[in-house]
Amino acid sequence: MTTDGHFPVLPRISSERTISRRALAQTLFSALAAGFASPLSSALHPVRKHLLDAALLDLADDRLPANDEPLFLSAQQITTLDVLSEAIVPGARKARAAQFIDLLLSADAHDVQQNFLAALNASESTSQDRFHATLSSLTPTQLDDLLVDLSTESSPDRKHFENLKDWIAGAYYSSEIGMRELGWTPDRVFPQFPSCPHSEGHV
User: Fold this and answer.
1) What is the spatial distance between Cα 36 and Cα 33, in angstroms, rounded to a whole number?
2) Domain locations in the chain as residue ranges
3) CA-to-CA distance for 196 and 187, rounded, in angstroms?
4) What is the pLDDT of residues 60-95, one digit of tens each?
5) Tens digits of residue pLDDT in 21-62
6) Which residues contact 150 (CB under 8 A, 6 or more apart)?
7) Is 116 in contact with 163 (CB distance < 8 Å)?
């Protein structure tokens, strides 16, 4: 934060390059340290650790634009995560949130990986039980109903949903697209984040 309470101004985006995810993550955490509302529901979620790992963020900048091959998840799991990400946070697909999460998971501990897979599998199982269809094949209405089911207080899979939601929120809001939604621009910054524009209220 600068002395006047604004986010630090990062270099202007040119048509040849974008702001690095490391710089965006630093700006995001500077804002959180100053007391702005976090897009993550848990301060202990594993994604926070990754967003402080400069080498891993630099690897993401190098790898994501040029390679779609999963590092940890299967191709079907990536597809499921991509559909789920876009439904929870519109714009996550454009920000390549699923691919970024896959890269982070490839560098994480076995128990974190297994917790993520359990959460993703729980969403898929609920889709199969309710609609007799894979999550990636659901209609928009069915997908919205699925998210409501998963996120209700009484859902046995609510913790799984919250786990996935924080991974997705961390991946999206540490991207240039996500930071712009929060109010950051290369040459103008805002003293506080606006309210989340997603009417569903998942993030």
Assistant:
1) 7
2) 21-181
3) 22
4) 777 776 667 888 999 999 999 999 999 999 999 998
5) 766 666 665 655 545 555 655 666 777 777 767 777 777 777
6) 122, 123, 126, 157, 158, 160, 161
7) yes
**Residue that has been written with the tokens 């997908």 in this structure:** 143
- Write down the residue that tokens 């913790």 correspond to: 159
The helix or strand, by DSSP H or E, that contains position 81, with its residue range, turns out to be helix 75-88
Q: Is 56 in contact with 133 (CB distance < 8 Å)?
A: no
Of 77, 66, 62, 91, the C-alpha closest to 171 is 91
How far apart CA 139 and CA 195 sit, in angstroms, is: 28
CB 60 within 8 A of CB 81: no
| Angle between helix 110-131 and 140-151 (nearest 10) | 120
Tokens found for residue 158 = 């609510």
Of residues 118, 114, 115, 78, the one with CA closest to residue 98: 78
